[in-house]
Amino acid sequence: MKILISADMEGATGVTWPADVLPGSEQWQRCRHMFTSDVNAAIGGFFDGGADEVLVNEAHWTMRNLLLERLDERAQMLTGRHKTLSMVEGVQHGDVDGIAFLGYHTGAGTEGVLAHTYLANSITGVWVNGARASEGLLNSLVVAEFGVPVVLVTGDDRTCEDAQGYAPEARSVAVKDYVSRYAAVCRPPARTAADIRAAAKEAAVLAVRRAPVEDGPFTVEVEFDAEHLAGAATVVPGVVSSGERRVAYSSDTMYDGIRCFKAVTTVVSSAVEEQYG
């Protein structure tokens, strides 16, 4: 049994505001330890449940946040940026039996601690075939095309609620309860580590590769907080204006869909000007 852990940071234990997750800040250095603790708890639980191999894919910002020197030695870590499938890199090789979305968060424009979709700001909403989409939903559609089930989701309580929509069978652990985008009632790391480890052990039984799901075509619509960003996004082939501050594109598979989404966010990031966005 091989488990892939897609590890994001906004939904990690103790994280509640931007400085907690922005590389280089004092708070980020502190929160890296709690982030690594969450990941180690999941690794331990999956091995408790019978896993033979665990690969951790760094999925936050620079994708160089976890402390390798503190990682459970039974696991391996894929770290760094510019990966074909970004947050779920590794799922495409046909040897992964289940995936965990660890430290995830809710999508742009919704309630949740540090809620966003790919970009920390600029994007105010993403929809797939008319349904509002978080990073969890987007990534779940990608991994389903490779027959890999989502078996565990951790984050705030709103993230766990969101996961019920795209991975209803998955185990979930709320490490904090949403109060505002920048505030939460947090559980201590010793408690969240125990909860995550127990849930991962239970989740291991769900890690059974399935037939690939072919649910396409997909229409993805993205809304921005400024009209010029929507205009910038249309530079990407196939992306067209779909309304005020909105663009849309279609793809036969979510493999292609997420890659186009990455291109859109990259172009839009380059069009954001200091202060005015």
Morphology call:
globular
Number of strands: 12
Our measurement of the CA-to-CA distance between the termini, rounded to an integer number of angstroms, reads 45 Å
Strand order of the largest sheet: 3-2-1-4-7-8-9
Give the helix proportion (percent range). 25-40%
The parts where pLDDT drops under 50 for at least 5 residues are none
SS summary, helix count: 6
Task: Tell me briefly what this model is.
By secondary structure, the protein is an alpha/beta fold.
Q: What can you tell me about this protein's structure?
A:
The structure is a single chain. The protein is of the alpha/beta class and 277 residues long. A hairpin with a 2-residue loop joins strand 5 (123-128) and strand 6. It has helices at 26-48, 135-144, 157-166, 189-203, 227-233, 254-271; strands at residues 2-7, 53-58, 76-78, 98-102, 123-128, 131-132, 150-156, 171-180, 183-186, 218-224, 240-243, 246-251. A seven-stranded mixed β-sheet has the order 3-2-1-4-7-8-9, sandwiched between helices. It starts with a strand and ends in a 6-residue tail after the last helix. The radius of gyration is 18 Å and the shape is globular.
Features:
277 residues, five-stranded antiparallel β-sheet, alpha/beta
List the topology elements.
Elements lengths: L1 E6 L18 H23 L4 E6 L17 E3 L19 E5 L20 E6 L2 E2 L2 H10 L5 E7 H10 L4 E10 L2 E4 L2 H15 L14 E7 L2 H7 L6 E4 L2 E6 L2 H18 L6
Parallel strand pairs: 1-2, 1-4, 2-3, 4-7, 7-8
Antiparallel strand pairs: 5-6, 5-10, 8-9, 10-12, 11-12
Helix pairs in contact: 1-4, 2-3, 5-6
